[in-house]
Design a protein that fits this description.
8-stranded mixed beta sheet, 17% helix, 2,3-Dihydroxybiphenyl 1,2-Dioxygenase, domain 1, alpha+beta
């Protein structure tokens, strides 16, 4: 199954990030670990009950990160699916919780509710007909019939859509399905995480990475063999230079910067987030990769305290 595997973004204070995504949006805290390349920093994973591919939004929460600037060469919007009947619930909830948001609008025939998190990250909820029949992670104050159902997709803001579109369609399993204004929609067929929209904006100001920015978008590969074939096509047909495979404990990844400037990852579906703790206990304790385990006391001493009650 092709589509988005996860999206990783940059946040400010860890506790504020944790509270917003678990208490306001009602996502499950799937994994508490660290940035493997910067182990003094958390790496948070939020998603559905099982941490399914296509549901996972991850963050590097850097306490003093400077604010990013939206612009060309970035992921402009990260959107989640909700039942079409839930948009009213979420509009009222955002008012009650003081979440900055816009009035709902129609896009590609669906109702879209745009909002920002406390770090200024651009997000949206998309009302999807029939999503109410799908399983969801319910929390206090958010009934199951209104809960988030994983990603709808991402919107990329690019100078020129053509080279990126070629990779989406030839390598990553998407195809063009619709156009509306400056937007072109690409879909993979996956219900969850199956949409990439490209907004072409020639001559627009380039973005700057920082707090509130998406760091990278990861796409799914079923296994190592499919990932290797994707890598081969990137090199042979698109003149890309993906990295070697990196073991991220919960998936194995390669990375490349697509022609529009966005960092893309291809991540395997396996082994998944239950590889080092039972599904029922996901996110409750700090998990470290084997090579960092000898430094656990040192790492725990510098990470901000986080109360994960459930």
């Amino acid at each position: 199954m092709h589509g988005i595997h996860h999206v990783t973004a940059i946040a400010g204070p860890a506790t504020r990030n944790f509270d917003f995504y678990t208490q306001v949006l009602g996502l499950r805290f799937v994994k508490k670990t660290v940035n493997f390349d910067d182990p003094g920093t958390y790496h948070f994973y939020f998603g559905d009950e099982a941490g399914s591919p296509g549901s996972i939004l991850t963050f590097f929460p850097w306490e003093h990160a400077a604010a990013g600037r939206a612009g060309v060469g970035q992921t402009q919007i990260t959107s989640f699916r909700v039942p079409a009947t839930a948009i009213g619930f979420w509009t009222h909830r955002f008012v009650e919780k003081g979440v900055a948001h816009e009035a709902p609008e129609k896009l590609f025939g669906e109702t879209v509710l745009r909002f920002t998190d406390p770090d200024g990250m651009n997000l949206a909820l998309v009302g999807v007909a029939g999503a109410e029949t799908e399983a969801a992670w319910a929390t206090s104050g958010i009934p199951q019939e209104h809960a988030l159902r994983g990603f709808h997709g991402v919107t990329l803001l690019l100078e020129d859509k053509a080279p990126t579109a070629a990779i989406l369609t030839d390598v990553l399993g998407f195809k063009e399905t619709a156009r509306e204004g400056a937007l072109t929609r690409y879909a993979s067929g996956a219900a969850v995480g199956g949409i990439v929209d490209i907004r072409e904006a020639k001559g627009f100001l380039a973005g700057r990475m920082g707090r509130g920015s998406v760091h990278h978008v990861a796409f799914r590969a079923a296994d190592d063999a499919e990932q290797a074939e994707m890598s081969r096509k990137l090199v042979a047909s698109h003149h890309q230079h993906p990295t070697g495979q990196k073991d991220r404990n919960y998936f194995r990844s390669i990375y490349f910067r697509e022609p529009g400037g966005v960092l893309f990852e291809i991540a395997t579906d396996q082994p998944g987030f239950a590889v080092d703790e039972p599904k029922e206990e996901l996110g409750k304790t700090l998990k470290l990769p084997r090579f960092l385990e000898p430094r656990r006391r040192e790492i725990e001493a510098v990470l901000p305290a986080l109360d994960v009650a459930s």
